[in-house]
Amino acid sequence: MSEVQVTKSIDARGAYCPGPLMELVKGIKTAKVGDVVEVLSTDKGSAVDIPEWVNKMGHEIAYLENEGDEFKIAVRKAK
Amino acid sequence: MEQQAPSLAVILLSEDLEKLHAGALVGSVASMSGMTVNVFVTMNALKSFRKDSFENADFITGTIGKEMLAKKIPLFDSLLQEGKDMGELNIYGCALAMDIMDWNEEDMIDVFDGVIGVTKFLGMTQGATVITM
How confident is the model at residue B3 (pLDDT cuts 50, 70, 90)? Predict the structure, then answer.
């Protein structure tokens, strides 16, 4: 996991659904293809919704980790 | 056959904060996920889109709506704006209800793309999935 180079990290802890997803979408929109955007979240819905959005939009999950109530999801922009 | 982007129509009828929030949430996420979204705001829902409703936090709420206000989470106006910024989401006021109440677009929060009739809305949402709140 540690070898993934994160381009931008977004702290969306404490935001309610779909806040972390919205922050990620903004981050991906301004990122370059190949960049990795990481989101920190405490929202359980986002842990399910973010991978769904990533698959639908054709990007790639670099990693999805959770520690207690916190999730860390990194997404590689594919197009 | 011509391929069309998947399209969603959201019709907001109710002034209940929870219904407005749920409709706005579905619309904004759909927009961010590549769908074309058209939102039609009509009847009592229009009242909650008035600037003075926001200034006075004058919304009809139930159990969850009260808590949303207490926790000061971003409301439906913010969700809709995010949907506009991050994808294709258009919002229209209903000409009939606006006329009956003698309200103008300037009385409304700044998210509207126009005031239209049902015929125009049906034209732009042909074949779309429809959600009514």
Answer: low
Residue A2 falls within a domain, yes or no?
no
Provide the domain limits for residue B27: 7-132
The domain that contains B74 carries what CATH number? 3.40.1260.10
Given CB atoms, is A26 within the 8 Å cutoff of chain B?
A: yes
Nearest-Cα distance to chain B for A67, in Å, is 25
Contacts of residue A4, Cβ cutoff 8 Å, sequence gap at least 6: A36, A62, A63, A74
Q: What is the pLDDT of residues A19-39, one digit of tens each?
A: 999 999 999 999 999 999 999
Side chain identity, residue A10: I
- Give the residue numbers in B contacting A (CB under 8 Å), as ranges: 25, 28-29, 32-34, 71, 73-74, 82, 86
